[in-house]
Specification:
Elements (H helix, E strand, L loop, with lengths): L5 H10 L7 E5 L2 E4 H11 L9 H27 L6 H29 L5 H10 L5 E2 L2 E9 L2 H11 L4 H15 L10 E6 L5 H8 L11 E3 L2 E11 L2 E2 L2 H31 L7
Helix pairs in contact: 1-2, 1-4, 2-3, 5-9
Amino acid sequence: MKRYCVALAMSMMLIGQSVSAVVLVTVNGDEITSEEVNKVLLEGTQGRFESLPADKQNELRHRIIEGMIAQELVYDDALKTGVLDSKEYKQEYDTLMNRLKVQLAAKMWEQEQFEAIKVDLNEIKAYFDANPNEFIDKEKIHARHILVKSKGEAESIIVMLKTLRGEKLKQEFMAQAKTKSIGPSAAKGGDLGYFPRGQMVPSFNDAAFGMKKGSISSVPVQSQFGYHIIYIEDKKPAKKLGFESVKSFIEQRIKMDKFKAHMEKKMSLLREKARIIYTK
């Protein structure tokens, strides 16, 4: 495929992801490959393309391909009509290339500066020992809830569920959530998954973390959304994370801190040596 857009081609090059290229379409003899399309999709979705639903992926892929076809057609017509020979085009092209040259050089320079930063294992261990509270996996609970509009409806559900225990309670709670809850988790039996303290609204948080595993809330819990009946499916106590599990994270954190300090010093030196004149 021709240089359908200089800026886009340069940005695609910076992504640097290599995949097997398959020709998807040919426009007036010029090929548009799967590699080119995939790079644009990755850039456009900030690397989250694979996490999108299949229908959304297909829609985006189709739009990108059609956009590339359109740009190829426009480029061909621009060639035929002499746009690339015009003074305006050449000026814009030179300006764009100079800007991209500076941006690419800056990107590569910063990358080299970052890679030159070294972090010693002793530094990592010292940080781990000095900051024990940073490396604690917080207490979490796995909860379900039934959300209804009125306190009376919530109380009637609680009365019915109180007669059950164990697996029967869990199964009936899930069934009630699916049929009566107005919350978005209703289809999943009210499942909210695991969450730490402070993630839910205060009234829900306080009630849920004060409950035992396998129990339901004895009274409705009110929030701005309505009235909740809570079921605690599991509890995980807080635990200290091991050094090996957080070593890479600490290394990157220290490296980034060093990099920032290095860049501040480096830029200060560069400015001192430079001849900078403000015209306004």
